[in-house]
Amino acid sequence: MVTENRPPGRRPSGPVVGYRGGPANGHGMGTMTQETKARGLSPGARIDRYTLERQIGGGGFSIVYLANDPETRTQVIVKEYMPRKLAARGDDGRTVITVGEDEKSVERFAQGKKMFFQEAATLATLKHPNIVNVTNFFRANGTVYMVMEYAQGINLQEYIRRHNGSLSEKLIRIVFTALLDGLKCIHSRGLLHLDIKPGNIYLRSGGSPLLLDFGAVHEMMQSRQDQASQVITPGFSPIEQLTPGGYVGPWSDIYALGATMRACIEGVAPPPSPERSPEDHMKPASVAFRRRYSAALLRVIDWAMEVDPLARPQNVDQLLAALADNATDDPPESGSMLERLANSFSWGRS
């Protein structure tokens, strides 16, 4: 079974990588609507040992708060499981209760809590400088919470939107070399992320990235029959993730990462992978962007985005090696003084 997750769509014109609900806030947790704000806990509320400052984001399944940890005297991010269609705040203003009392609604809410808790438990064991650091997770108020380190920066999706794509090659290499190292850590634990996209990447100062949102994480399976249902994002999910019985593996995360690299250049989500099969009408990056980026970098993107899973790199080490081998290649000189000046900055156009 395939579940579509916050699809970006493909804008026929315009340079924005779009996601339903607009660009993400803070740690890539989605924009905060008035409805989300009304469902949230009040500033000053205490959960476990944490005191909430304010809401900073949320979506269909969770609400995100900036909070204070008195033990460490630091600000942290607290994410609360609060599915909009299944739950509401109780009369006490704190407890989360199911909207419907029927057995199906109760079961779905309980299953969602279990998956949220599993995500937190998984993240808490993945300690890597480029993977969001979960420091605590617990049950309270009839729901579950995870606590993450707070870092100042910007969501990659929003950064692409601000700069209309066209991010500098230097920044792309810095960001994606680090992300690949984090992805290698995930794969070494026998796990797949399966939802890599600009909205799930956070950029800290200097371009140091964090990989977020492990809600779709799966264990690597030995056969197609063992594959669980998949979460998809059109443009970033590979063909095998949308195909019943499709065999997902490290190559599936590699496709999504390559698509994210292309979005950094083009400013829009690539075409959904089913539209690229059986005939692929997407112009290769090595052709479309050859005047602005090195041939070496563009070849890496095209390799990662091969429609056929067997034609892609089969593991992260292969892609890291390709990036490292070509890291000394200079991008072509831009045609104008303005473009040359823009390319001299690691953060791309400003």
Structural features, described:
- A 6-stranded antiparallel beta sheet has the order 2-3-4-5-9-8. Strands 10-12-13 form a 3-stranded antiparallel beta sheet.
- The chain contains 10 helices and 15 strands.
- The chain has helices spanning 34-39, 103-125, 156-163, 169-188, 239-242, 250-266, 285-288, 295-304, 316-325, 337-343, and strands at 2-4, 46-47, 50-58, 62-69, 74-81, 87-89, 96-98, 134-140, 143-149, 153-155, 191-192, 201-204, 209-211, 218-219, 230-232.
- A hairpin with a 2-residue loop joins strand 8 (134-140) and strand 9 (143-149).
- Helix 4 runs antiparallel to helix 6, helix 4 runs antiparallel to helix 9 and helix 6 packs across helix 8.
- It has 2 domains: 28-149, Phosphorylase Kinase, domain 1, CATH 3.30.200.20; 153-343, Transferase(Phosphotransferase) domain 1 (Transferase(Phosphotransferase), domain 1), CATH 1.10.510.10.
